[in-house]
């Protein structure tokens, strides 16, 4: 079929027949039922106006959406609120001051429980401290912190005084800090001496010092003492958090800001080019973060113990550690360190210790746990869990089923939540009390959200077809622009298809109309005229019992245009068995993909590797694997978690590719 050109935008190869009904007990008590879809469908703006009333407004909005100047939206524009008041004070005023807001678990094993009353005092003091350092409404503050409660306090203190925060992930370099501080013109940087990572203190302040040697405009650096490491000190500029914050009053009157007042800027690393400063504002963002956290996790704040394992430096940490859960008065766990310190059961030990009921993590972590083996979670009591979430990448059906069985004990619904830094909050996801879930599918747009799949000509694809994911109506937590670059905002998201938001992801609709995310469109492979998604081939590989993780890329090929090259990580036992001789296994894996998806998707080469290149938020970087597969010099590796991974992979490349 060499040169047959398919008229599909994206082939639909994978069939998944497994279905899991929502647990009856959960469905009977669910926060949100199927009626929400109907209600939102009949009156979308009325639906969101009602969700906005979950918040406490100083001035209730009378307008819902102003879309008179697309794509620049205004939500609840005549309303006024204080985001920090909504996340903290109002719970204390409601008599819930003694409820634990954050169970902090440090990597070395230290722990602290912080109640809503304590959080209110700490946020108030930090707000006064920022004001004393000269931070005013409308200013920007950069935050470069480990995963400690002060990171959340810092963000809320900014929100409280109307300064936008720009959190820079604590694993990023001085270059990244400098670029972000400069782009946002930050006045203050909040950091720590360091944090604990992989069993030892890991310094943070030196990177801030280095960055500030290169950019101007930062007046003060506020430093939390976490590790007690020695730090260089710039007199007049640097201030210890404990010295300035502790002496402030715990009484602070929150000012109400316009719903469209900037709340934060978060830079998406992006695969190429200058990072984009994604701007989020207050009222619409908080409405959707709070609503989705309530609906998708079925949060019962009186009894649930919620844990999101993301870092505060990513949007998941913003929306589902800080703003959504705290707006809902949740009790949550916050963990500082890595999943394998001091042992590979650390996450399950934490679930057991705090009685975690709702767990939100990423496919990359789930696949790592699969690789480490079923026996590790089996040693812990995970019976408190009742809802499991996934975010960050498409979750392979096999990883989904593993998560359900080995972590969820076969009883917990899994919510696979699709969204982006740009969308601010969840957009496509099952509802745990409503949806019969399908392993690997994010399924339906949430109530009040309009998403679909279109072909190259912007025509909606029929059920069973594949193409591009688009969002067809504005939503409350949508990005408002790219900081300082409205034109880039329009060009990047609103120009590929007229009048709709293009997310950059490939997707398909199955025969029931449910949506399956198929990876970034930049990664789609073109094999003999067929557009084949990375996700489907990777999922077919992961469905083989010997494979824990897979990444596939299209490499230039004389006969087929591109040929599929697969990099696989074997599961613990399989890696040991295959030691030395992988030829038989490679042949078996190629056949397995061929049998699962059809001959067109059979990889030309399969390379077992020990690690895959990932971004710091755990997403596979296929671009670098493409460089390897095409024997090119490696592109930019600075966003890699571990740059030695690439030399290991290159060293493993056999001279002669396996052929049919
Ligand atoms: C929240 C977050 C956004 C990109 C997005 C997509 C991928 C996220 C996903 C998913 C399939 C899911 N993605 N969740 N793909 N299924 N449930 O991750 O934001 O870091 O901006 O990344 O991540 O490709 O476009 P962000």
Automatic annotation (TrEMBL):
Amino-acid positions noted as binding ATP in the UniProt annotation, renumbered to this chain: 392-394, 416-421, 505, 520
Residue span(s) of domain AMP-dependent synthetase/ligase: 95-475
Record CDD domains: ACS
Positions annotated to bind CoA: 197-200, 316, 528
One GO term (biological process): acetyl-CoA biosynthetic process from acetate
Entry's Gene Ontology molecular function annotations: acetate-CoA ligase activity; AMP binding; ATP binding; metal ion binding
InterPro entries: Ac_CoA_lig (IPR011904), ACAS_N (IPR032387), AMP-bd_C (IPR025110), AMP-bd_C_sf (IPR045851), AMP-binding_CS (IPR020845), AMP-dep_synth/lig_dom (IPR000873), ANL_N_sf (IPR042099)
Modified residues (N6-acetyllysine): 619
This enzyme's EC code(s): 6.2.1.1
Residues bound to Mg(2+): 542, 544, 547
GO terms under cellular component: cytosol
UniProt entry keywords in alphabetical sequence: Acetylation, ATP-binding, Ligase, Magnesium, Metal-binding, Nucleotide-binding
Pfam families: ACAS_N, AMP-binding, AMP-binding_C
Limits of the Acetyl-coenzyme A synthetase N-terminal domain: 35-87
SUPFAM superfamilies: Acetyl-CoA synthetase-like
Record's comment on post-translational modification: Acetylated. Deacetylation by the SIR2-homolog deacetylase activates the enzyme.
Reactions catalysed according to its record: acetate + ATP + CoA = acetyl-CoA + AMP + diphosphate
Superkingdom, natural source: Bacteria
Cofactor(s), names only, from the UniProt record: Mg(2+)
Protein's job: Catalyzes the conversion of acetate into acetyl-CoA (AcCoA), an essential intermediate at the junction of anabolic and catabolic pathways. AcsA undergoes a two-step reaction. In the first half reaction, AcsA combines acetate with ATP to form acetyl-adenylate (AcAMP) intermediate. In the second half reaction, it can then transfer the acetyl group from AcAMP to the sulfhydryl group of CoA, forming the product AcCoA.
Family: Belongs to the ATP-dependent AMP-binding enzyme family.
Protein name listed in UniProt: Acetyl-coenzyme A synthetase
Gene: acsA_2
């Amino acid at each position: 079929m060499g040169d047959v050109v398919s008229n599909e935008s994206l082939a639909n190869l994978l069939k998944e027949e497994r279905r899991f009904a929502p647990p009856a007990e959960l469905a009977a008590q669910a926060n949100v039922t199927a009626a929400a879809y109907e209600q939102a469908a009949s009156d979308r703006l009325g639906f969101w106006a009602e969700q906005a009333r979950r918040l406490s407004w100083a001035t209730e909005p009378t307008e819902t959406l102003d879309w008179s100047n697309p794509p620049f939206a205004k939500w609840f524009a005549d309303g006024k609120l204080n985001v920090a008041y909504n996340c903290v004070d109002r719970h204390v005023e409601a008599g819930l001051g003694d409820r634990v807001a954050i169970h902090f678990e440090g990597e070395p094993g230290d722990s602290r429980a912080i109640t809503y009353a304590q959080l209110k005092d700490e946020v108030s003091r930090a707000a006064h401290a920022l004001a004393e350092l000269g931070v005013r409404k409308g200013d920007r503050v950069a935050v470069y912190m480990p995963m400690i409660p002060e990171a959340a306090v810092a963000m809320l203190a900014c929100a409280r005084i109307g300064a936008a925060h720009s959190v820079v992930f604590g694993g990023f370099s001085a270059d990244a800090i400098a670029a972000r501080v400069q782009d946002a013109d930050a006045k203050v940087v909040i950091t720590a001496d360091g944090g604990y990572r992989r069993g030892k203190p890991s310094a943070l302040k030196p990177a801030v010092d280095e960055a500030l040697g290169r950019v101007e405009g930062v007046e003060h650096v506020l430093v939390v003492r976490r590790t007690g490491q020695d730090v260089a000190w710039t007199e007049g500029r640097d201030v210890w958090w404990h010295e300035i914050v502790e002496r402030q009053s715990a009484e602070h009157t929150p000012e109400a800001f316009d719903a469209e007042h900037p709340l934060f800027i978060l830079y998406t690393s992006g695969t190429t080019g200058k990072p984009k400063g994604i701007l989020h504002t207050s009222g619409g963002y908080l409405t959707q973060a709070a609503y989705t956290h309530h609906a998708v996790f079925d949060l019962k704040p009186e009894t649930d113990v919620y844990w999101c394992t993301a870092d505060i430096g990513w949007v998941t940490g913003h929306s589902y550690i800080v703003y959504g859960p705290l707006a809902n008065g949740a009790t949550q766990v916050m963990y500082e360190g890595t999943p394998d310190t001091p042992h590979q059961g650390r996450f399950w030990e934490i679930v057991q210790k705090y009685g975690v009921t709702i767990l939100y993590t990423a496919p990359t972590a789930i696949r790592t746990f699969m690789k480490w083996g079923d026996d590790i979670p089996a040693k812990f009591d995970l019976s408190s869990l009742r809802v499991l979430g996934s975010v960050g990448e498409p979750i392979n059906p096999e990883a989904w089923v593993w998560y359900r069985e080995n972590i969820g004990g076969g009883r917990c619904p899994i919510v696979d939540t699709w969204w982006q830094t740009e969308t601010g909050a969840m957009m496509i996801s099952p509802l745990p009390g409503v949806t019969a879930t399908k392993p690997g599918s994010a399924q339906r747009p949430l109530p009040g959200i309009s998403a679909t799949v279109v072909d190259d000509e912007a025509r909606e694809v029929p059920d069973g077809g594949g193409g591009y994911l688009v969002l067809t109506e504005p939503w409350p937590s949508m990005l408002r622009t790219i900081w300082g670059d409205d034109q880039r905002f329009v060009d990047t998201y609103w120009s590929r298809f007229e009048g709709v938001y293009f997310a950059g992801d490939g997707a398909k609709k199955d025969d029931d109309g449910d949506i399956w995310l198929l990876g970034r469109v930049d990664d789609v492979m073109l094999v003999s005229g067929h557009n084949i998604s990375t996700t489907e081939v990777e999922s077919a590989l992961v469905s083989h019992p010997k494979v824990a993780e897979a990444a596939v890329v299209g490499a230039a090929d004389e006969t087929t245009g591109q040929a599929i090259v697969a990099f696989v990580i074997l599961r613990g036992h399989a890696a040991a068995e295959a030691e030395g001789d992988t030829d038989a296994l490679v042949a078996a894996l190629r056949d397995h993909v061929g049998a699962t998806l059809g001959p067109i998707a059979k990889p030309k080469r399969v390379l077992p590797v020990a690690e895959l290149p990932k971004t710091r938020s755990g997403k596979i970087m296929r671009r670098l694997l493409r460089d390897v597969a095409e024997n090119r010099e490696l592109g930019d590796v600075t966003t890699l978690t571990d740059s030695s991974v690439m030399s290991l992979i290159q060293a493993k490349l056999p001279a002669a590719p396996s052929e049919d």
